[in-house]
Amino acid sequence: MSDERPLRDHDMMIPPLRELMGPSEVVRRVVAEVSDVARSDFTVVIYGETGTGKELVARAIHHSSLRASGPFVPVDCGAIPETLLESELFGHEKGSFTGADAQKLGKFETARGGTLLLDEIANMPLTSQAKLLRVLQDNVLYRVGGTKPIKIDVRLLVASNKNLEAAVAEGGFREDLLYRLNEFTIFVPPLRERTKDILYLADRFLDITNMELKKSVPGFSPEVRQKLLSHAWPGNVRQLRSTVRRAVLLANGVIAEKHLKLSDVGPERMGDNGLSGFTEPVEAPEEDGSLKAVVHKAVEAAERKAIVRALRKTGGNMSKAAKLLKVDYKTVYTKIKKYRLSTKPEDLYGKSAH
Length: 354
Known about the structure:
Elements: H1 17-21, H2 25-38, E1 44-48, H3 54-63, E2 72-76, H4 82-90, H5 107-110, E3 115-119, H6 126-138, E4 140-141, E5 150-151, E6 155-160, H7 164-169, H8 175-181, E7 184-188, H9 195-213, H10 222-230, H11 236-250, H12 270-273, H13 291-313, H14 318-325, H15 329-339, H16 345-348
Parallel strand pairs: 1-6, 1-7, 2-3, 3-6
Antiparallel strand pairs: 4-5
Helix pairs in contact: 2-3, 9-11, 13-14, 14-15
C-alpha cells in the first residue's frame, strides 16, 4: 500500500536560513533572532519589503521550533476575497452558504500542531481582524455556520510589507489585534542594505538555473557583477532571482550586460508599501501649550534631524546609520517609520529630506 499522506516541509531537506539568504551581518542578526524566538510559542511579526524573504524567515522559525514535525501553512491574506477569508481561515459547515456543498476545514485546523503564517496581514479587512482577535483570545474557533467550539493548537506568525502601527493610526488595522500579535518582531532588511549578499545570491541562482535548464553558464562578467552590486533592487531578492534566471536563459557563455534587463522591473519600493520611503514627517498634533508638549516636540525634531544626518552620511544605509548613532538597527528602523523618512539617496540629498 502506498503512503498517501501529504508531504510536509519536515520531510524534505531544508537548507539553513543563512545559506538561503546570504553571509551578510544583517542576515546573521536575523538568524540570531530566529534562534532566540523559535523554540517559544510567541507570535512573531515579520516586517520586510516585498521580495525580501519573509516567508523564508517564517519557515526557518517553524523548522527550528518544537512544532517542526507539524505542518507549515502559509496564507496570503491579500489574495483571498473578503467574502471567503473567514471560511478559508476558520472553515465552514456544509450548507452554511451558497456553494458550501461539503464541510471544509480552515487553515487554523489544517495547521494543527504546526505553524500558520498569515502573510500580508495588513490587507485583512477589519471585520476579519475582529474575528481573528476573538479566536486568538479564546483559543477556540467556530466554523462558518457551525455551533461547536473547536480548540486551536497552532503557532501563529504574521508577515507584513506595511507598517502596522501606521495602519493603526490610519484606521486600517485594529490596535488591540496589533498588541495581541506583537510579541516579537523581526525586520528583514532590503537587498540594497545587504550588498554582501547580492553576489552570493546571484551565484546561487545561477547554479540553480543552470541545473534547471541543463546549461553551463560559467558566471558573470566583471561589468555585470558591478551592475548587480550598484543596482537598487526595488524588488529585492525576488527581482534578483528573476533577473539572473532570465540572463542564464539568454546567455550561452559568460553573462554580459546585454543579458540584463534591470529596467524591465516596475518601480516598487519600500516607500510605496508603507515601511519607509516617505519624505514628509508625520504632522504633529496641535500644541496644547504645556511644557511637556513643547519639550516632546523639540525632542522629536532633534531626533529626526539626527537620523536624517546619519542617513545622509551613510547613503541611506540603516545598518550603518545605526552604528553611527550608537543604537541598534531596530531603533533606527522604528524611528524611520515613525517620522516617515526616506532612505532613497535622491530624497536624502534633495529638498524632500529636509
